[in-house]
Amino acid sequence: MKLRLGMIGGGQGSFIGAVHRIAASLDGLYELVAGAFSSNPDTSRATGQELGLAPDRVYASYQELVEQEAQRPANERVQVISIVTPNHLHFAPAKLALEHGFDVVLDKPMTFSLAEAQELADVLKSTGRKLCLTHTYTGYPILKEARHLVASGALGTVRKVYVEYPQGWLSTPEESGENKQAAWRTDPARSGIAGAMGDIGTHAFNLLEYVSGLHVTELCADINTVVPNRRLDDDGAVLLKLGDAASGVLVATQVAAGEENNLRLRIYGEKGGLDWQQADANTLLVKWLDRPAEVRRTGAAYLSAAARHNSRIPPGHPEGYLEAFANLYRNFALTLLAEQGGPSAPPEAQDYPSIEEGLRGMAFIENVIASGQSERKWTKFTV
Question: For the chain, which residues score pLDDT lower than 50?
Fold first, then answer.
């Protein structure tokens, strides 16, 4: 049984739209049947034609998609709507889709502002639908293992967390040319109040909280705009307090010339620590206080149930970004299908980012920017 999928955004030239479509198709649990792929009706039609969709299921606007699909017979209409638009076009389509009875997959950050996120949380609760937020990196199998190790107490009480996300693609003013990705990500009207901190800082923040199991309670941010005339931040560092026992450091920059996407996470407890980086995404280095370090690898039989559930191929065969993305789609599908009378979803399949992670991500953005603009040393983290 496949879930019928509709997509909003992701038209010709979109990077993330293609990624979502690959991720959704990887396990054969979704069938893309409808879309409003662009605010330009001609682009939407052309994209639908490229994807082989029926012309009457390719819409000129997201409103048309949601309203007309809702009028189709229950056995024909889309069941899940994936929203892969720029940030300022997340809230309204998601709200409309939920209110018309559709479950939603939503690209991060969840909304344009924390106020929108809070309203969307109320809508989700009132409709009883489900939402999956695509914080991709939590889908890596070996990070499921890292989370399991921390939660099991193997490292003891967590004391220190470091997370860094360096990119270099905005080291020059790419937004002044033909780079559409750079143009909207550096535009406050489309991206929101944050640049790098909203784009990749939210990923780093989400990963830190997901694996450590801790919540940021206070922060102290240094936010910078390095490239002249850029309207949003492109670099920053944040000191973090995670309750009473742990502290951390988060670095997110898009002006580290030569860097690609080497997201890295390190967590240290009383008894040992973890070290993972996306450049070697299938490897987790576990360092112990009183014995030699271990190397744990994706696909191995010795891994936790959560890591094995999200592994697809035997050890030594690389699994990466697309597979991690697909794990989110698969887990969401298994949860939805179980509710529709399919096989029960194991606990491992119910592990995907949702509304709480979305709320905290938007709160991170607003708290970080407020702290960066303040002369106070510490800002209490509020949602």
Answer: none
pTM for this entry: 0.97
Q: Rounded to whole angstroms, what are the CA distances from 214 to 79, 135, 150, 194, 242?
A: 34, 17, 10, 24, 6
Structure tokens at 332: 């969401």
Contacts with 231 (C-beta within 8 Å, 6 or more apart), sequence order: 186, 187, 188, 195, 225
Query: Tell me: the pLDDT tens digits for 8-33?
Result: 999 998 999 999 999 999 999 999 99
Half-sphere exposure at residue 312, Cβ-oriented, CA atoms within 13 angstroms: 16
State the pLDDT at residue 338.
96
Q: Does residue 55 have a cis peptide bond before it, meaning omega lies within 30 degrees of 0?
A: no
DSSP line for 202-251: HHHHHHHHHHH-----EEEEEEE--STT-SS--EEEEEEEETTTEEEEEE
Instruction: Kindly state the greatest CA–CA separation across the chain.
Output: 65
Tokens representing residue 69 in the block: 């699909």
| Contact call for residues 276 and 256 (beta carbons, < 8 A) | no
Beta bridge partners of 275: 266, 285
pLDDT given for residue 155 in this prediction? 98
Provide φ and ψ at 51, rounded to 5°: -85, 0
Tokens representing 350 are: 């119910």
Using an 8 Å Cβ cutoff, are 332 and 23 in contact? no
Gyration radius of the chain over CA positions: 21
What pLDDT score was predicted for residue 96?
98
State the pLDDT at residue 1: 84
